[in-house]
Write a structure and sequence with these properties.
The chain has 257 residues and is an alpha/beta fold. The chain has a domain of 163 residues: P-loop containing nucleotide triphosphate hydrolases (Rossmann fold). It has ten helices and ten strands. The strands form two sheets. A six-stranded mixed beta sheet has the order 6-7-8-3-9-10, with helices on both faces. Helix 3 crosses helix 5. The longest helix has 14 residues. It starts with 9 loop residues before the first strand and ends in a 7-residue tail after the last helix. Bound molecules: adenosine-5'-triphosphate (ATP).
């Protein structure tokens, strides 16, 4: 349990959380702390509970027991997904969900304006502040050259970057990113890593990932958390985790590298 003095830099507190689905304990006494400005990578074999962990933070699933707090003692367990999102927690799912027939620019405009609705947004002339904001987002995700291209015509990697840009348009404090490198070429994967590292200067980020080359790239000297059977098996720098016998047994030993 964290003491008050240790909490000053804490952004997310997950303590002793459990979640059972139909008698199966998907998350079991999970404790996890994230500091402000951290870029944390979470790995673990299939079924370890990574998606459920994100579901619990974002309010998609509710814990049976335990505490989940954001910022300075804001209890997330009593809030719904919308309220948690409004607090500043954004999630990017593995499969990009962009408006295929609308341009990259329009997709970013839609995210910037929130729940106004597609029709209202696209019939309203963006303000110069909105244009500046979108230009900055396009630079961040390196899609300036694609601003007028319909999102459906983008390459897989570009769609993922656009969706990250759409998430950033809401200016979240905490970004939860699910397997961003899945299905990407090596070059796209490396660019995604660079992008996440640059975002970590302003945001706190948790990335769930299977691709170990990518995990090594983004983890640098930061912490990697290994989940197994719904709980934290170990935590440490990439090389420490990689050398841990328990990790080798449950994860790397199964042929994932
Ligand atoms: N809504 C649900 N109902 C029943 N069982 C569930 C539900 N959600 C998750 N589970 C179970 O909980 C366990 C953890 O699932 P979860 O999807 O969180 O793992 P994961 O680490 O994300 O796996 P993967 O790497 O394959 O995506 C799995 O055994 C899964 O079948």
């Amino acid at each position: 349990m964290k003491l008050a003095a240790e909490k000053t830099n804490l952004l997310l507190l997950v303590e002793d959380v459990s979640k059972t689905f139909d008698g199966f304990k998907a998350i079991s006494n999970l404790t996890f702390y994230l500091d402000r400005g951290e870029l944390r990578t979470v790995i673990g074999p299939n079924g370890a509970g990574k998606s459920t962990f994100f579901d619990l933070i974002t309010g998609r699933a509710k814990p049976d027991t335990g505490r989940i707090e954001f910022g300075w003692n804001t209890d997330l367990t009593g809030m719904n997904e919308y309220q948690i999102n409004r607090l500043g927690i954004g999630r990017k799912f593995q499969t990009p969900s962009v408006y295929a027939e609308h341009t990259v620019f329009e997709n970013l405009l839609l995210s910037l304006q929130g729940p106004r609705g597609v029709f209202a947004t696209l019939w309203h002339r963006p303000t110069s502040t909105e244009r500046d904001r979108i230009d900055a987002l396009l630079r961040t995700v390196r899609l300036e050259a694609k601003r007028a291209v319909p999102a459906g015509r983008l390459a897989h990697g570009e769609k993922q970057w656009l969706e990250l840009g759409m998430l950033l348009a809401q200016d979240p404090q905490l970004l939860l990113v699910d397997e961003p490198a899945a299905g990407m070429t090596d070059d796209e994967t490396a660019r995604t890593g660079d992008l996440l590292i640059s975002l970590a200067e302003k945001h706190s980020i948790i990335v769930v990932e299977h691709d170990m080359t990518f995990v090594r790239q983004i983890a640098r000297d930061g912490k990697v958390t290994v989940l197994h059977q719904g709980t934290v098996l170990c935590e440490g720098r990439f090389d420490e985790v990689q050398a841990d016998e328990r990790v080798r047994e449950v994860y790397l030993g199964r042929g994932k590298h």
